[in-house]
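Sample intake — 3-Hydroxy-3-methylglutaryl-CoA lyase
Collected from: Methylobacterium aquaticum
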Amino acid sequence: MTSQRPTSVDIVEVGPRDGLQNDSHLLSTDAKVEMIRRLAEAGLRRIEAASFVNPKRVPQMADAEAVLARVVDLPGVSVSGLVLNARGFERALAAKLREISFVAVATDTMATRNQGTTALGLVETWSDLAVRAKDAGLFRSVTIAVAFGCPFEGEVALDRVIDIARAVAESGVDEISLADTIGVATPRMVEERFAALARAVPGVPMRAHFHNTRNTGYANADAALRSGVTVLDASLGGLGGCPFAPGATGNIATEDLVSMLERDRVASGISLEALRDATCWLEGEMGRRLPGHAAHVTPWPAVLAA
């Protein structure tokens, strides 16, 4: 395990998907497209724009194809979609995506609530999809949900997470993410689990997904960077939550994460000023202030100049 922060990091913007999926305020298709456009202009190069799910279960994603049709060819941006099964994979292919995300789950109860099968069933689903995605030339990212704790089963054994990661890697994957779906991780847990992941699947790039439910998300993000993680998820304004995980609140805010990284001299290639503007615009669309902070405080250089 490394204790040094990297000089640069990639940020995956998950606001248009994970940020919106649990929100009662339904954004229009035009507003979602505008959100993604603003994120791209701010410098985000990986944007998770939609999920291919049953719209009766997740109404915010009912217009997935309509949104993707207008953003899939944004210059210099890899637009991805969340795929949960073979039907979702077919929809992703039809949408001409170049990157897909898949969710494996570390507990059976959460897997049943979220995807209607067991944890092993999801591993088996990925075994099939991994081959098909490779043949289609897609970048394949797999997230292991509730990797730090489950709202139904409580503590999740590290061995359970690692066994799933090994099975996913054996099927084929380009990146593995550990997700703190309900915001119960601590920096020590993050260091421990990513160190174990690195040993279990050497050479596979590691990604981290944190929710800020208990206000530990940013400390966990820093711990992940010091543990060899090269990709972090974040959501504009700190939007987020899971429809099938009681108590899950928002993701770490993209603008707050970028602000922290800038102060630590970790490059992200993203404009904090543009993110601040995008957050304020999104708050107007949502009709409320969002959980993030950086959009509402004076930029640090301006304090020095005052």
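Post-analysis note: The domain at 10-305 is CATH 3.20.20.70 (TIM Barrel).
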